[in-house]
Amino acid sequence: MENIKYEVMKKIMNKKMKNLKYDDLVKEWNKEKRQMIKETSDHRIYRWDPEGMYKILENTGKVITDTNPYVNLVDIEEFDLVIENEPYPVAPPPMNKVKGKKSKGASFFGVMHKEITGDAMYYMKDQMISMERINKEAQGINIPEPNKEKEKDLIKLKKEIFEYAKSLGFASMGVTKVDRRYVSMGVDDEIIFDNIILLGYEMPKEVLDNYPKPKGELGAFGAYTGCARNVHKVADFIRSKGHDCRSRDWGGGIKYSPHAVNAGLGNYSTYGVCVTPEAGTRLKYCSILIDADLPLDKPKDFNIEEFCSRCRMCQKSCPSNSIPKEEKQYKGAVKRQTRFSGCLELMTTSRECLKCVRVCPFSMIGYEQCMESLPQYYMYNLQIDELDKEFLLSKKEGEYIE
Ligand code: SF4
Ligand code: SF4
């Protein structure tokens, strides 16, 4: 039945797009962009309900973020009250209907997929199936019953979940508490558990090697679809171990970078995403909220920010200037703020730009080699416990230590 449904949809999509040309859509997109930029640039999280009452939310993840030295936040109390949540509003306005006008957003992606993969539904099919299931789960509909026998050894359970997720292609995994300051407006009520498993799906290097003119597969959409295809399998595995859980998508309702950094997967990159030693920035994230108190992973210093501060290749090469040169103070928080609207434009009108990923040494060369290229005295963060201050101070500035 499912297959018939999607075969029919595929025919309709392909027919509808027969006369649409990608370049024409790009032109239309450019016409509308000014309005879109205006609409995306000013999203805030206020925890007020529609009646104007202040909503008080439990926020167990706050302590983790507050004590995490790798999140670059100051004056966190103010940040609590008014969070600036770019680049991920619930749904980017360019993908919504704008003032009664018919949006071309969805066709845009469909046409791109068709031209690259030969099938408008190539990625959409799995994305739609997954999204439908996630939306239903969020409303408490069609959630499979967890097994009656509950795995009580939570260390073992976590290990098994990670091993299973890895076998499905997830490269980076970690557990932390939800910090609701990084949950988008209107999504709070769907986040019914406080423990969150972060899952990072890899964009293979071989796929990125085909850019800037990808053929056959797309890096970002491939990884988003990897999340869509596999996140429910991990959730069902958790249920088979007797625990309740909810899959969450890649759409931005939960901002994953701070959670991934809190879960010790990696550190912030220059453009705000979490760089991991396993795959650099070649990851797209999804998550699972779980009722079990799995052992939490701790934030960890991989010395990545040190390397980034000497690299900044992504910032220098971003064609839309969406990656900021400096951190900025915003509503009490010091943060890097990638301009979502500028990036989205290039990610669609240039068939997934991904230049920031393609120039990143962590993504393309590997963590070990990046670290080897850092002079030893910039490596102190990693050896902070056995830091030989006397030895380091005996060296002149700029002197390399063999
Ligand atoms: S390109 Fe350079 S600065 Fe940017 S994330 Fe990668 S290592 Fe960091
Ligand atoms: S994908 Fe392209 S436009 Fe977007 S931030 Fe990266 S380099 Fe800039």
Structure commentary:
This protein is of the alpha+beta class and about 400 residues long. The chain has one domain (about 1-365). Helices cover about 40% and strands about 10% of the residues. The chain contains 17 helices and 10 strands. The strands form 4 sheets. The protein has a 4-stranded antiparallel sheet with strand order 3-4-8-5, sandwiched between helices. The chain has a two-stranded antiparallel sheet with strand order 1-2. Strands 6-7 form a two-stranded antiparallel sheet. A hairpin with a 2-residue loop joins strand 9 and strand 10 (about 335). The longest helix is centred in the middle third of the chain and has 22 residues, at about 220-240. The termini are far apart. Bound molecules: iron/sulfur cluster (2 copies). One iron/sulfur cluster binds next to helix 13 and helix 14.
How are the secondary structure elements laid out?
Layout: H1 2-16, H2 22-40, E1 44-45, H3 61-67, H4 76-81, E2 83-84, H5 105-117, H6 124-138, H7 154-167, E3 170-177, E4 195-202, H8 205-208, H9 219-240, E5 245-248, H10 256-262, E6 267-268, E7 274-275, E8 283-290, H11 304-309, H12 313-317, E9 328-330, E10 333-335, H13 340-349, H14 355-358, H15 361-364, H16 367-372, H17 389-393
Antiparallel strand pairs: 1-2, 3-4, 4-8, 5-8, 6-7, 9-10
Helix pairs in contact: 2-13, 6-9, 7-9
One iron/sulfur cluster is lined by residues 269-270, 275, 281, 307-308, 311-314, 359-362.
List keywords for this structure.
17 helices; 40% helix; binds iron/sulfur cluster; two-stranded antiparallel ribbon; alpha+beta; 4-stranded antiparallel β-sheet; globular; single chain; 402 residues
